[in-house]
Design goal:
By secondary structure, this protein is an alpha/beta fold. It has a single domain, classed as Thiamin diphosphate (ThDP)-binding fold, Pyr/PP domains (Rossmann fold). Helix content is 37%, strand content 10%. The protein contains ten helices and eight strands. The chain has helices spanning 41-66, 81-90, 104-109, 114-121, 154-169, 187-198, 247-262, 291-298, 302-312, 317-339; strands spanning 96-100, 145-149, 175-180, 203-209, 212-213, 216-217, 240-243, 268-273. The chain has a six-stranded parallel beta sheet with strand order 2-1-3-4-8-7, sandwiched between helices. Strands 5-6 form a two-stranded antiparallel sheet. The chain starts with 40 loop residues before the first helix and ends in a 24-residue tail after the last helix.
């Protein structure tokens, strides 16, 4: 994948690149062998339901944002559901998760309830953080979802901490740290990988490579084609690339990496190649992406892919429609729960500020 300018006029000045004329970066080729993968039918049905929950939740979040009910901005995972669904299905309940500001899906996949998560987006007191975190800082310690981080790459070294804790305590817990392709050019990414290998930590690093670092195509400013996988060998790790739009492929890759970590064989780095359907955030129309590229990736939508696979495997259309309708009802209930919440009591601003939960300093 070339990092050279894409038009002659920009040859001497890479800041003048015309994104609209960039070559299309196609999806990973769908693996037909996934139809025959050794995945129990009940697991596949759960994977389908998970993806439906994540898709419908994000669509509703978008609708509420357009109604000016979501406080602040939001970063949606529409089109990227297979990554969090696959890992969520493979993880144990007591495994740890760290996510980026695009963390709605990872929070829900870790078991956080729909209503309080939706209420948090609306900044209501019945939100999962009582309205204090909002979309970009979703956290549920109860579910070992250890936070969504707005500082690029900041959570990767912190994630090593929970992995180290599990190692010291002798549990079989594994930490999974999700991050975007943009974080691979941040120092914390390299520091975290280095120490994870040195200490042989039970951690899985998952790069959700959606091809764009906010508004910048990642291949324009990265020296390798695959920003995570092509750097794995520098830390003695296997080069792992998975179709991030195929929930079965993600699930199997997650199982392998999690099992490796649980048996004390150390960390893994997985690059899941995927694509967001919209812009970076709700403030971004995403017009910098070539139309052919967007069309190609929309044709590689993870949910229709999985829907068709289940039909080929003999699952009746009616069963899938029932799941879709059931999820729609749950999303409606979560929305009403969120809207019914009150604005946070101002007194809450002085809580959760110190170890004892109060606002007083040690002195």
């Amino acid at each position: 994948m070339s990092t050279k300018p894409f038009n002659d006029s920009a040859a001497d000045d890479p800041t003048l690149l015309d994104y609209a004329t960039r070559p299309v970066r196609p999806p990973v080729a769908l693996d037909p062998a996934m139809d025959e993968a050794d995945i129990p039918s009940d697991v596949r049905m759960e994977l389908y339901e998970r993806q439906q929950v994540l898709r419908q939740f994000e669509k509703r979040a978008y609708d509420l944002f357009m109604q000016n009910l979501v406080k602040g901005t939001s970063h949606l995972s529409l089109g990227m559901e297979a990554v969090s669904a696959g890992f969520g299905q493979a993880m144990q309940p007591d495994d740890y998760v760290f996510a980026t500001y695009r963390g709605h899906a990872h929070t829900l996949s870790k078991g956080a309830p729909l209503g309080p998560v939706m209420a948090e987006l609306l900044g209501r007191e019945n939100g999962i953080l009582q309205g204090k975190g909002g979309s970009m800082h979703l956290t549920s310690v109860e579910h070992n979802m250890m936070g969504s981080y707005a500082i690029i790459g900041a959570h990767l070294c912190i994630a090593n901490g929970t992995a180290w804790s599990a190692q010291i305590r002798g549990t079989d817990q594994v930490t999974v740290a999700f991050f975007g392709d943009g974080a691979t050019n941040i120092g914390a990414f390299h520091e975290a990988l280095n120490f994870a290998v040195i200490w042989n930590l039970p951690i899985v690093f998952v790069c959700e490579n959606n091809l764009y670092m906010e508004y910048t195509p990642s291949d324009l400013i990265t020296a390798v084609e695959h920003p995570a996988a092509d750097r794995a060998s520098a830390y003695g790790l296997e080069r792992i690339i998975v179709d991030g739009n195929d929930a079965d492929a993600v699930y199997l890759s997650a199982q392998t990496a999690l099992t490796k970590a649980r048996r004390g064989a150390g960390p893994s780095l997985i690059e899941a190649v995927t694509y967001r359907h919209g812009g970076h955030s709700r403030a971004d129309p995403g017009k910098y992406r070539p139309a052919d590229e967007v069309e190609a990736w929309l044709d590689h939508d993870p949910i229709p892919i999985y829907h068709q696979r289940l039909l080929r495997l003999g699952v009746p259309e009616g069963d899938l429609a029932t799941i879709q309708q059931s999820v729609a009802g749950r999303i409606d209930e979560a929305t009403e729960f969120a809207k019914a919440g009150l604005p946070p009591d101002p007194a809450l601003a002085m809580t959760d500020l110190w170890a004892d939960g109060g606002s007083a300093w040690r002195n």
